[in-house]
Design brief:
The protein starts with a helix and ends with a strand. It is α+β, with helices and mostly antiparallel strands and 384 residues long. It is built from 9 helices and 15 strands. Helix 4 crosses helix 9. The N terminus is likely disordered.
Length: 384
């Protein structure tokens, strides 16, 4: 006993004991249910349901690349203003973005375009250059995924905006995507928080719809981040009356196409299919219309999972409105309108519009774009 007492009194033993106690305490705390940022909006615990308790979890969508190998933003090199803004917004949200340099459409050779396209300088006049440059930039994104053999990556436009509570939203999306893309699977050997069996996640769009044959849905109810109908673009998704959903509900579902590319992700499998299709394609469509066709016609078995209302929108900054789009052409002979206040459709707690508030006051300073009702109780989720 004397020997044991002597040992316990030694500095090395005391240090080892303290370290063991600390590690055990951290582990116990990590196992407890944590209240998310989204819960702080309403006061209460959200019920995030998971299909698997082992391997990669939906909560891994909260990491520094949102559960993907990388997050990219397409940016024209002269638009340093847009790159500054999106980089800061991502940093304040807790993820990293890498820039893909946008392609200048005028520099694309006619020989690289689909065979049926007339000489680009004669089609849509100058505007076609910008559309073609956008198209090629997105194909470069798909090619990067294939070339680097990564599981998946997400790309967004450089005027994209999202919720301050994006990571809470994505944890729900990950749970829903696993169920939507493969509802009968029992596997726990997952490579992505979003599941293994999807080609595209269309998370930032300006219109989408359910597939006509129906299919499984993951329903997120009583969600304070869902925008009121009057602040959604083109209803931004399925008409809620079709499924009996109220105006505080977000749905994850298999999409029958979509429009706009504020943000989407491709898996390795999906990127390969996109490249294969465009390699052999004879006619040209803007990139979002091409992806719409891919999803609608399920080309090569393409699985396209979407969220409505969308999680990403396009931010329109205060100031001259000709700064908005790098595709749209402005008539130099017409006066330029000025926007007095910035705005983003679809996003209640806009990250772009809360940047200064967060830097000065933290999350306590977060404001909504519009007056929102106070919802009672936690976020609820269910499978359909």
């Amino acid at each position: 006993m004397a020997g044991l007492a002597s040992t316990l009194k030694s500095p090395r033993a005391l240090f080892a004991g303290a370290a063991l106690f600390y590690l055990l305490s951290v582990w116990l705390i990590s196992q407890q249910y944590h209240v998310t940022l989204l819960d702080k909006v309403r006061g209460g615990a959200s019920s995030i349901k998971t299909l698997s308790e082992t391997g990669v979890k939906p909560s891994d969508a909260r990491n520094g690349t949102l559960g993907f190998a990388k997050v990219f933003v397409i940016n024209m090199k002269e638009r340093t203003d847009k790159l500054d803004a999106v980089t800061l917004a991502a940093s304040l949200t807790g993820f990293h973005v890498d820039a893909i340099e946008g392609v200048v459409g005028a520099e694309i050779s006619n020989r690289t375009l689909p065979a049926s396209v007339p000489p680009k300088e004669k089609w849509f006049e100058q505007r076609f250059d910008n559309i073609a440059g956008c198209w090629r930039s997105h194909l470069n994104f798909a090619r990067w995924i294939v070339s680097n053999n990564v599981g998946s990556a997400l790309v967004m436009e450089d005027d994209a905006d999202w919720s301050v509570y994006l990571k809470d939203q994505l944890e729900h999306v990950a749970t829903g995507s696993r169920y939507i893309s493969d509802p009968t699977s029992k596997t726990t050997d997952l490579l992505s928080p979003y599941g293994n069996d999807w080609d595209m996640l269309w998370l930032g769009h300006c219109g989408s719809s359910f597939r006509p044959e129906g299919g499984p849905r993951y329903v997120i109810e009583n969600d304070p981040t869902v925008p009121p109908p009057e602040h959604r673009i083109i209803d931004n998704g399925p008409r809620y009356a079709e499924g009996g959903y109220d105006n505080h509900t977000r749905i994850i579902y298999m999409a029958n196409g979509g429009l706009c590319t504020q943000a989407y992700a491709l898996s390795q499998r999906g990127a390969r299919k996109v490249l294969q299709w465009y390699i052999n394609r004879q006619d040209f469509e803007p990139i979002d219309l091409g992806l719409h066709t891919f999803c609608q016609d399920q080309i090569m078995g393409f699985k396209c999972v979407a969220a409505a209302p969308a999680l990403w929108g396009s931010h329109r900054a205060a100031g001259p409105m000709n700064r908005d789009s790098d595709i749209q052409r402005w008539n130099p002979n017409e006066p330029i309108s000025v926007r007095e206040k910035g705005e983003t459709y679809n996003i209640v707690h806009s990250m772009r519009m809360n940047g200064e508030n967060i830097l000065v006051n933290g999350l306590e300073g977060v404001t909504t774009q519009w007056d929102m009702p106070q919802l009672e109780g936690p976020v609820r989720t269910r499978y359909e």
